[in-house]
Amino acid sequence: MSNSTIQTLGIVGTGAMGRGIAQIAAQAGLTVNLFDTNAQAVAAARQYLQDTFTKLAEKGKMSAADGEAALARVKACAALEDLAACDMVLEAIVERLEVKRDLVAKLEAVVREDAVIASNTSSLSITAIAVGAKKPGRVVGYHFFNPVPLMKVVEVVDGISGDPAVGDRLMELSRRMGHTPVRCKDMPGFIVNHAGRGMNIEGLKVAQEGVAEFVDIDNIMREQAGFRMGPFELMDLTGLDVSHPVMESIYNQFYQEPRYRPSPITSLRSVGGLLGRKTGAGFYAYPNGQKQVPAAAPVPAARPASVWVSRANERGHAMTVKLLTALGVTVEAGNQPPADALIVVTPLGLDATTAALEEGLDATRVVAIDTLMPFEATKRRTLMTTPATSAAARDAAHGLFASDGVPVTVIRDSAGFVAQRVISCIVNIASDIAQQRIATPTDIDLAVHLGLGYPKGPLALGDTIGADLILEVLRNLNRLTGDMRYRPSPWLWRRAGLGLSLLTEEA
Questions:
Q1: How would DSSP label each residue in 76-123?
Q2: Which residues are catalytic?
Q3: Per-residue pLDDT tens over the stretch 30-55
Q4: Which of 128, 129, 118, 200 is nearest to 155 (CA)?
Q5: Measured in Å, how far apart are the chain's first and last C-alpha atoms?
Q6: Torsional class of 360: left (φ above 0), alpha (ψ -120 to 50), beta (otherwise)
Q7: Residue 382 belongs to a domain
Q8: Is residue 302 packed enough to be buried (19+ CB in 10 Å), middle (13-18) or exposed (0-12)?
């Protein structure tokens, strides 16, 4: 296989992905040959690119001359044979394995011996696509994200029979086109779609258990955990016609691994046509295209007469006492709560009921607060009640913890708070990807940060919070529920035990 620089790129399929890749390639100086079985689609794609370059020039993001030159490098092709001189051909066609295999066979009959054949598949195995190819070593995954010009990450996927030199050429090409490449082995979901299971799957699990409403879970993940969007906002944006099949596909491709178990919530809503923004209704309603959010309930005026904070979690105790002091409360100092005090517990991965029972506390006065993340770093606080917590205790805690203007969400009793569960699953799945050597820790974090818009990569997020705290949450979740979805990855528990960064690779 030649290591020469790729100068001429053929693209088969001129939908949104094909056009986006053509745009960044032409802007980078490559000659782009476009082909689609529908000749009108090729003409429409070229017109789209002309309009795009004109708009970019009008906005001052490129000169008119550069726009004209980029468009001149985009050639319309009437037949596959017109791609014969390409250094590389990328397919961006329908996600059906047999159709892609058939295209690979046709391309091999056309292109040069040293030409690269790449697939932009998001869900199919690169190894499976290469089956039957005369030269499977040159078949490689090249997975861009939509919209291509704005999503600056691309996954370079090595199939089992792939030639590493081919992947090396695509890594170099990606950088020339202004994108950040990440390298991974051929496994279901590659990096981004694999790692993305933690947010959506666990968010759905929380909702399915009746712990909190969709909007509450989104608010917590956005304002307490610091994510750009919560799971239900994200699924509404993507559309359940896309998200739900991906969930099912990854779950089945990993032979029903519990970490990836889908929820019947998305199955039912898909059947009912509640797909998200594209249908005007999903987890939220979108009248006139605008998300409709229910009004927040008023903050209770009640305040507790006194407050006692459990010391079972020393870190949580210190954080909560510091917050309460800032709120003007003097915390009761005794080893046991006074008879009239609000009892505050700070469990990690436990429910408020278990915390109350294990400490012998009066469950009618117990309210738990989430201390996984530092209070000063969050814009929302989450409280949890037991089934026995009185309305007076609940309202007094809500009023107190919201008294400085920071919004508070009160959830029902659950093994672990919302942010604890979702973040721990995100970190754990990324740790498992690293454990399987699907990609390097650095590439995992780069791919997820750029591909999913998380505030930082999942492994760096675990380091920031503390791998030991994430591990404690998962162990308690696993102990209470018996659900293997919370089984800690060896990558996580070994590094937590040794005090190492989750980004640490073995020598």
A1: E-SSGGGGTT-SEEEE---S-HHHHHHHHHHHHTTS-TT-EEEE--SS
A2: 122, 143, 155, 193
A3: 999 999 999 999 999 999 999 999 99
A4: 118
A5: 31
A6: left
A7: yes
A8: middle
- From CA 225, how far away is CA 470, in angstroms rounded? 14
Q: How far apart are CA 386 and CA 227, in angstroms?
A: 28
**Which pLDDT band, with edges at 50, 70 and 90, does 3 fall under?**
low
| Nearest to 35, CA basis, from 96, 110, 97, 128 | 110
CATH number of the CATH domain containing 20? 3.40.50.720
Domain-located, residue 280: yes
In a domain, 40, yes or no: yes
Q: Are the C-beta atoms of 36 and 45 separated by less than 8 Å? A: yes
Q: 506: pLDDT confidence band, cut at 50, 70 and 90?
A: confident
Residues 257 and 352 in one domain: no
83 and 202 fall within a common domain: no
Written as one letter, the residue type at 120 is N
Please report the sign of the dihedral spanned by the C-alpha atoms of residue 265, residue 411, residue 193, residue 379: positive
Measured between alpha carbons, how far is 440 from 197 in angstroms, rounded to an integer?
18
> What number is the average pLDDT over the span 250-267?
96
**Overall pTM > 0.70:** yes
Q: Is 38 found in the same domain as 125?
A: yes
Dig out the tokens for 18 from the structure.
């094909």
Instruction: Return the pLDDT at 507.
Output: 76
CA-nearest of 329, 6, 382 to 167 is 6
User: What mean pLDDT do residues 163-190 have?
Assistant: 97
Calpha distance 457→83 (Å, rounded): 39
Task: Count CB-CB contacts under 10 A for residue 159.
Answer: 24
Q: Is the pLDDT of residue 1 over 70?
A: no
pLDDT digits (tens, 9 = 90+) for 103-153: 999 999 999 999 999 999 998 999 999 999 999 999 999 999 999 999 999
Residues 29 and 112 in one domain: yes
CA distance 263 to 243: 11
Joined together, the tokens standing for residue 363 give 């469950």
- Of all residues in the chain, the percent with pLDDT exceeding 90 is 96
- pLDDT of 144 reads 97
Domain range for 78: 8-186
Rounded distance between C-alpha atoms, residue 427 and residue 496, angstroms: 12
